Amino acid sequence: MSPQPLSVAVIGAGMAGRSHAAGYRQVNTVFGAGLPPIRLAAIADANTELAEDAARRYGYERAVSSWEEIAADPSIDAVSIVVGNTLHRPIAEALIAAGKHVLCEKPLAGSIEDAEAMVAAERGAEVVTAVGYTLRRSPAIAAIRDHVRGGELGALTLFHGRYWCDYAADPRGPLSWRFKGGPGSGALGDIGAHVIDVAEHLCGPIDSVSGGALTTQITERPVPTGAVVGHDAAPVGDETGEVDNEDTAVFTARFRSGLTGSFSVSRTAFGLPNGLAFDVHGLGGRAAFDWHRPAEYLFDDAQPRGRARGPRQVIVGPQMPYFAGGYPMQAPGNGGGNAEMFVYQCRAFLDQVTGSTDPLPACASFADALHTMHVIRAVVRSAEAGGAPVDVA
Questions:
Q1: At CA 96, angle to CA 95 and CA 100, rounded to 5?
Q2: pTM (two decimals)
Q3: pLDDT digits (tens, 9 = 90+) for 242-271
Q4: Could you give the dihedral angle defined by the CA atoms of residues 378, 197, 175 and 164, in that order, rounded to the nearest 10 degrees?
């Protein structure tokens, strides 16, 4: 382990930005002693008050008002990009050109063209580039992946995934950047990207989609008069603006293996604050997970005698991936949540940066995230064609 500190910064001090900031703060408290000391250098946000508050809360040396200050600082080694999707490309290109390692939030960019440019920059980079698909770091989801990859479910027959949230169910919610960007950049790009990645993480790549349908329940929203942070409410005036992306999306998918899957996502599903869930079935078993119960999953197979067969509640514990070495209290039933997943993601990224000899599973690449965007674009094209089948590029 090098005694030379590794300097990190976060661009974006909103909801997810703070999760990255907290994650870096804790990376040396989990798993092995494979990282050098971490210097928490800076947090950047155009909202200076927000940046200063995040820097104070998470122990960063300073707050700055522009991402350009981060790119220009030669003492900073690695940076998380956690801002609006349309800003990802110029920031990533500038950071890579400055020789900084980059962890970018999903979706990769605001458009396919920008994402392709970022992948081109990744190909020629001499730095680590990665994308944050945090749900991969759930011990329960990782354990289900082990069941699938180990053949314990038998040949897979069906995947059903959903991500139902209610953060946009209030018509008085402000018209933030999340409601702009065109078809595919709404619920499909925001939360659909996560469930698509989980599905492919478990079951392999998606080759085609069909039955695409996008709908917008709230077509106009009030224009905010102040800063909007994450999914929070904000002051609004009497002026309204048009929502130009989807509130809900549904589609079916065919995986390269021949497996069929069904998907639905919504940001207007009342009563579900963060409702990611999925079922994966095989000829010899099934597994199911619900993010609202992150410390457990359901598992069913042909092991018990027939008269006692049925889904069994598996409690997350030290036998799961990420748990041993990843929790201060390593005892069964203490399954964590969103905050721990960001710690593991930041640790995995920095393992890649330092070339750790005992790394966590690597983060997704820009190229992986571009594939997710191609799946999303195929869903949009399917919807525009009345649900027709569309191959993923």
A1: 70
A2: 0.93
A3: 999 999 999 999 999 999 999 999 999 999
A4: 100
